[in-house]
Design goal:
Order of helices and strands: HHHHHHHHHHHHHHHH
Strand content: under 5%
Structural class: mainly alpha
Helix content: 55-70%
Number of helices: 16
Number of strands: 0
Radius of gyration: 25 Å
Largest sheet: none
Length: about 325
């Protein structure tokens, strides 16, 4: 055991990890996180391993399972619906995530100006997050109906003819993006907490230097909350790439939906669900799931790589 150097705040190690495990607080900590560990092993890691094994089979949930090697993965490149659904999902993500972040940041900055009423409005903004996603899908059909929907009625009031949001292909994904902004409250709460932690003396110093509101926002606010911005960017991107419930409820929840809905509402997870539980192609659906996993991993790694250029952490020497 090496002796601590002068000025070293760390106490000398006594017994290593086994001594740490014998401490009461350490055992208590592991006991508290044990339910999460068991849940992760049983409901996340276990199914992931099983789906990876099934992706090399023709498993249909009923008959005899046969090993087909890489046939399921090869089929992905020959399936036009995979490219279509992935394109729809990427377009939806590229449109939804920036809009959600901008709107959430604007609302969070407004909360800073309402004083004591911020707690009330913060609750109001967050309540839609608690709305079941199935209800949001039904709400989409009610609000965006081309003939009697509230959105088009409001547009008619100002002399604008609204599109057929639910049947006109190019407008389906923008409509779903707009209805997804209903649940922007969770991002608002994160930004509001980050904004309240920005040191006020930085604003005062910038104002003394003659900085206007835009310069203060760009050079003080954004760098100070860049960590929260990056966190919501990653989380919202992953969530958008897995969009399922709203689109499925609105366009595929009934047997007659596909008769008037184009493939513009076919998102990747919707197609994966169809292959698994409608056509019973469990092996192929497992391969689709692992492709989505790889796409998410690649996009997340790119985001982390680019974050080194714009994310500021307190104490960072860059």
């Amino acid at each position: 055991m090496t002796a601590p150097t002068p000025g070293d705040p760390r106490p000398p190690a006594r017994g290593g990890r086994w001594a740490a495990w014998k401490r009461h607080d350490t055992r208590a900590a592991y006991l508290f996180i044990l339910p999460w560990i068991l849940g992760f092993l049983i409901f996340t890691l276990g199914p992931m391993i099983a789906s990876f094994a099934l992706s090399f089979t023709n498993y249909d949930g009923i008959g005899v399972t046969q090993n087909v090697g890489l046939a399921n993965y090869a089929q992905i490149f020959d399936d036009p619906s995979v490219a279509k659904s992935m394109g729809n999902t990427l377009f939806f993500t590229a449109l939804r995530v920036p809009l959600q972040m901008v709107i959430a940041l604007a609302l969070a900055m407004l909360l800073l100006r309402v004083g004591r009423a911020a707690g009330f409005f913060r609750t109001v903004f967050y309540l839609p997050v608690m709305t079941p996603a199935v209800a949001v899908g039904v709400l989409f059909l009610m609000l965006f109906n081309g003939n009697v929907g509230v959105i088009n009625k409001a547009l008619e009031a100002v002399g604008v003819t609204g599109p057929s949001w639910t049947t006109d292909g190019p407008w389906i994904k923008p409509g779903l993006v707009l209805i997804s902004l209903w649940a922007v409250g969770s991002t608002v709460v994160i930004y509001f907490a980050a904004l309240r932690n920005v040191p006020q003396d930085l604003y005062e110093a910038a104002e003394l230097d003659g900085a206007n509101w835009w310069h203060r926002f760009r050079h003080v606010t954004l760098p100070q909350i860049s960590g929260a911005l990056f966190f919501t960017l990653v989380v919202n991107t992953i969530a958008s790439l897995q969009t399922f419930t709203e689109a499925y409820t609105a366009f595929y929840g009934t047997g007659q939906a596909q008769s008037y809905t184009s493939d513009d509402a076919l998102f990747y997870v919707v197609y994966l669900f169809q292959q698994a539980f409608q056509f019973m192609h469990m092996g192929y659906a497992s391969a689709l799931a692992w492709l989505l996993f790889l796409v998410i991993v690649v996009i997340t790694l790119v985001q982390f790589r680019l974050s080194k250029r714009f994310v500021y952490y307190e104490g960072d020497e860059r």
